[in-house]
Amino acid sequence: MVRYLLVLPALAMLASAVQAEEPSSSEMAAAIAAAAPSLVRVEYALRYDKGEQPQSFGGGGRFMHDLHGLAEAVREERPAEWGGFLVGPTTVVAPDPVIHPRFVESIAVRFGEDVVKARPAACGRDQAAVFLELERPLKGARPLAFDADRKGPYMEVTYSRSDGVWTATASSVATVLSVTETGRKTCPAPHSALVVDKRGGAVALSMGGEWPADDSWKGPPSAWKVVTADDLAAHLADVERRMAAGAMRVTLHFRSPKQETGRRMFRSRDDDRSATEQHAVGVLVNPRRVLVLANLKPNDTARLERIVVHPAKGEPAAAKFDGSLKDYGCFVAALEKPLPGAVAMSGRPILDCRWMLLPAAEVRLHGEDWTVYFNHCRIAGFDVGWRRQVYPQMSGDESRLVLFDEEGAVLALPVVRRERVTTEERYSDGRPLLTPVAYLKAVLDDLASHVDAHNAPLTEEEESRLAWLGAELQPLDKELARANKVSDLTHDGESGAIVSYVYPNSPAAGAGVEAGWILLRLRVEGQPKPLDVRLDRDDRFGGPFPWDELDEVQEQYYERIPTPWPGVENQLTRALTDLGFGTKFKAEFFRDGQTVLKDLEVAPGPPHYESAPRAKSAALGLTVRDLTYEVRRYFQKKDDEPGVVVSKVEPGGKASVAGLKPYEIITHVNDKPVANAGDFEAAAAGQDELRLSVKRMTRGRVVKIKMAPAAGPAPKAPGAAGKAP
Description:
Elements: H1 2-21, H2 25-35, E1 39-46, H3 61-67, H4 70-75, E2 80-88, E3 91-95, E4 104-111, E5 114-124, E6 129-134, E7 155-162, E8 165-172, E9 178-179, E10 185-188, E11 193-196, E12 202-206, E13 210-212, E14 226-228, H5 229-246, E15 247-254, E16 277-286, E17 289-293, H6 298-301, E18 304-310, E19 317-324, E20 331-335, E21 358-366, E22 369-377, E23 381-384, E24 390-393, E25 401-404, E26 410-415, E27 433-436, H7 437-444, H8 460-463, E28 467-468, E29 471-475, H9 478-483, E30 497-502, H10 507-510, E31 518-524, E32 531-532, H11 571-579, E33 584-591, E34 594-601, E35 603-604, E36 614-617, E37 622-626, H12 629-635, E38 644-649, H13 654-657, E39 665-669, E40 672-673, H14 677-684, E41 689-696, E42 699-706
Antiparallel strand pairs: 1-2, 1-4, 2-3, 3-6, 4-5, 5-6, 5-14, 7-8, 7-11, 9-10, 10-13, 11-12, 15-16, 15-18, 16-17, 17-20, 18-19, 19-20, 21-22, 21-25, 23-24, 25-26, 26-27, 28-35, 29-30, 30-31, 31-32, 31-33, 33-34, 36-37, 37-38, 38-39, 39-40, 39-41, 41-42
């Protein structure tokens, strides 16, 4: 008890000492009065360029908030304004807004009623500041006089608009020390502030968010390391030359996707798969290798047939696919002939670049055309992401930004972080992140260990393969989940599916899975989270397929009729296919009141309707396909029963005129059974008349079609008979 009583007076003495260090309101008022003749307003008159609103790639603290209103300032017909400091008769230091010159109409500096035009003369190299040169001195203003020897405690004076009024604010500068695990010592510092002593004498300007732990931050801005406007222009021109040689447009040519049947085929995360040509940015990482910044999913890469690289100078160059990066949304292409101008990849740690003036290129790709805007940027901070990787924090849209270090080497590229199959959201936008090249270089140096073998070009036949469990699934809903007592295991019916049928000799059958079990989720080795089973409910018609109404459908709408059976490709089969054949996983089921795990391996399924062999008869205007496993299941047909399914009926063709409809089954041609599309093609060839045995579910009929007579030999020319050979 005595010890506590002794401590109380000590704490009281400490509190008194701290209070003595705090500036009084009169001292703060004096500091503001001393600084007032040097506090100015910097006005940027901004504009739209090519219909695009102005944006910034820099700033921090209070200044960061101001940058978000650039477009609003244009719409409201007022300048974007920031507080600045007069440091010389015609020199003002202000926060660096990092706005591309194409958005800047003019710059002016205001003191009271006096307004003077200004131009950027230099930028701080390590300080987020711009030096503005005035056309003439400001009337009534007085430059600051800095003295690094002035002693603390210190105050900070800021100048900004608050509640509609320009306001100078003074407060004490806190003494805080931060030491990183690497031993770097810094002190948190005010942003865009004048640091003064108790008498209001200027000590330094603080334009970033931190100071060094020693006294090197004190002194006039004239002692800072700066980059003049001319030097910056020359530096950006050098970066532009490097960019022109080392970055290029890459054209990707894809095989046309197989035509989907009806309008209700499953759509994967990347809905637009109809394109046969795509343009992307390529980075020449060495004379024979291009890193293509295209986040292709496996079902798109499967269709990739040809790669053409377009250097800034010279003819287009052919390249071959060399591997998709496992963790990043890009792939490597190998050039058939070497190209000059490979970029240098910076070895500078990204953490050392905060607030530094960094050259940048903003790449706009528009089909075969691209536009690149060059400016400087500043990193305001950092985020920690995947596997503790550190990503720079920018105030603008970084998805098209390439950062360079002060030597002109590439520092960061806009790359999508490739999500794992189990973590990828179905409608994820896949936005590129400004990724330090140090991470990419480590991958490229050991490419074989970092490629995804399952994300590669395939043949047309291989492209159509889908993984399967060999079980038909019915998605749960809230009522089914509660009735089966699995609400807590299925997010109240939002996930999970009931096994309604197990195909013989399938992976599910081999694992002992039975109808009535509930599939909850998949646990895949190497994936960060389990894959919840989520399926869309098949409510295409609000009930069974309307076979009785098929005769009422006009022929021009045949192609829009969805298949009567559920499509084989869904979220689950797509995810399994993307995981790759041979991948081992555990399937979690619920049965008899408890969960069970079954060991399975991703296996390719048998041919399905969309990939089935087909035969097209131009004379009939008819296309038929083999009866695949899911089609036979729907029609309750055994494996040895003959038949082909009508997959397409051309409007106005003989088949349409004769009354054939999509999804009917043709079992015989001229009384001869047809087991597959090849049999149908052979049986129909060279016939004057076809008698087709057709079944629509359980009802059968015979359709007769007159064919054009086969063409005979060409008649001999007049007078040709009897001539000697």
